[in-house]
Amino acid sequence: MILEARADIEVVGEAADGAAAVELAGRLRPDVILMDVRMPHLDGVEATRRIVDAGGSARIIILTTYDVDEYVFAALRAGASGFLLKDVRPADMVDAVRIVARGEALLAPTVTRRLLDHFLDTLPERPVRPPDLAALSEREVQVLRLVALALSNAEIAARLVLTEATVKSHVSAVLRKLGLRDRVQAVVCAYDAGLVRPRPRT
């Protein structure tokens, strides 16, 4: 109801569980999917993984009860573009759909840092093959590392003495060369490659 009330958004389908979401995503080819984490038959994490692995172009927003939740990180690694809390204000939900539809990641830098610090060194994930960064220039590797440290484009520009436009160009090149969907996936990639590590727990 919230989304259908907006003239620029069309709700093309609804699914009662993860299996139905995968089937509908393949058939309806939506631009954005709001995916609940906990669903019967197939949870939102596995549904996200299957949609992404099938080559789906939909941007997936995870809906969760808690922002620091093992399912959230697993979903981001599976290919989600960000997450929203279930008590999100209606206007913020609409904005979130528009943001990811533009290809941007829906994850504030502070949340990125907290999630990765909390989970990357503790979650029993399936083995991840480190990505090959050979295609990146030295500058692009620097930018990728700073993206993973949750710096904004403006902060990266200040750190490297570049313009924001140049940083944005480097980020786009990194995504393109590594075949990544968005900034969230770049953060996960940088950690998998060992460019940065979670801070030790205190």
TrEMBL record:
InterPro entries: CheY-like_superfamily (IPR011006), NreC/VraR/RcsB-like_REC (IPR058245), Sig_transdc_resp-reg_C-effctor (IPR016032), Sig_transdc_resp-reg_receiver (IPR001789), Tscrpt_reg_LuxR_C (IPR000792), WalR-like (IPR039420). The keyword Phosphoprotein applies. Keywords: DNA-binding, Phosphoprotein, Transcription, Transcription regulation. It comes from Frankia umida. Residues 1-101 form the Response regulatory domain. This is Response regulator transcription factor. The keyword Transcription applies. PROSITE patterns: HTH_LUXR_2, RESPONSE_REGULATORY. Transmembrane segments: none annotated. The modification 4-aspartylphosphate is found at D36. Residues 129-194 form the HTH luxR-type domain.
